[in-house]
Amino acid sequence: MSSFRLRPFSHWFLALFLTFTAVGQVAAQDAATVSKEGVTPGATPAAAAPAAAGTAAPAGDAAAIAAGDALFKGNCAQCHGINEVVVGPALAGIDKRRPTPWLISWIKNSSKMVAAGDEYAVKIFNEYQKQQMPSFALSDAEITSILAYVKAEEGKVAAAPTGGGGTAVPAPGDNTETAEGGAGKYMNAVLMVLVVVLIVLVVTLVIIANIMKDVLRGRKDLDGRDLEVLEQKTDWGGILRSKWLTRTAVTLFVLVVLYSSLQSIMAVGLQQGYQPTQPIAFSHKLHAGEHQINCAYCHTSVYKSKSANIPSANICMNCHSQIKTTSPEIKKIYRAIQRQQPIQWVRVHNLPDLAYFNHAQHTQVGGIECQTCHGPIQNMEVVYQYSALTMGWCINCHRETPLNTKNNGYYDNLVKLHDNANAAAPFTVSSNGGTECSKCHY
């Protein structure tokens, strides 16, 4: 009987546990793959529009239509649909209703045409509750590209927003679960099954062990060694009083304290995850995600200023003078305008004064997308600081981001010198001095 052991049961239990653990890891990886948001830095709506539409524009008009796509979404889409009425009239067939010179004048300064008594301008103005359309400082070529885009999109069914524009919206009556929700429920079910199975296994093993002990105690042929093993008990008091346990506990405590202290010191000034409550419940998920309002429509200086401005109440009223006018949150905007007081928005992203940062240099010159630094902003109900915005985070980006030097004579000699010294490495921001102290601190 001395050879009788519980090893087969322990090995079986260990194998089963590892199997369920592997299944759980695979399920977690699948869920992460399915629910991952499609935010791709550098992917612009203009570039994605032809692919999403499923049709290719004529070769000669492709560039104009692509430019018009970006301009339309940045300036027009908030008030106009192409095939449906939003705040203003639907734009399908606009080139047949009015000639291009008239449309150019109207877009540049509609109020001037209404004041001058233009018959069609006055008719539109009165038909849409005398809602004044803003004037746009666009060139004739830009307006023509918008008209080309409108003509290319006439009659098309609007596609559900995806990727950088937000999550897809199911059609009415469609009970298909989103990938993220389905994966989450699947993972919860797997974890619950694992917990139940492990509990059942532990209870079963304890019962088996007790039954086998009772059986062995009734045997008469056990020698002294077997009886000693059978009746041995764990000396918990001795273990708790042992020096090695005390030393191990003290060492772990000291390491935890040191680690926590180091993390606290390193996190001084770090605001990642900061999510303040704003005076008005504004949803980027609704505006930038579901409605696909371009960031530059509200943050007008995002491509041309050192800082991305906070939108004024007047920009909100471009839409909300007609939309959800009775909403309690919108009434807060009305009160701010009536009192001639700015809305006290709470700033989320704030670099220290000792660091110089130019927003336009990154967005306009560098071509960096909003999501690169601000995260999936189109999915945020309440905006929070997505990135660390630390010096190390900025420097790593400068070391890894290649510079677009194509057709820019300023970089020709610099690229040659770089390639001669280290042709294997790409020409990054760091190669152009982007990690020098004086670039950000002076």
Automatic annotation (TrEMBL):
First and last residue of the signal peptide: 1-28
CDD domains: Cytochrom_C3
Lyase recorded as keyword: no
Cross-referenced Gene3D superfamilies: Cytochrome c-like domain, Cytochrome C3
Keywords: Heme, Iron, Membrane, Metal-binding, Signal, Transmembrane, Transmembrane helix
UniProt cross-references to InterPro entries, sorted A to Z: Cyt_c-like_dom, Cyt_c-like_dom_sf, Cyt_c7-like, Multihaem_cyt_sf
Domain Cytochrome c, residue spans: 63-154
Transmembrane domains' residue ranges: 189-212, 249-270
Domain of life: Bacteria
Protein name per Swiss-Prot or TrEMBL: C-type cytochrome
Species this protein is from: Hymenobacter koreensis
Lineage: Bacteria, Pseudomonadati, Bacteroidota, Cytophagia, Cytophagales
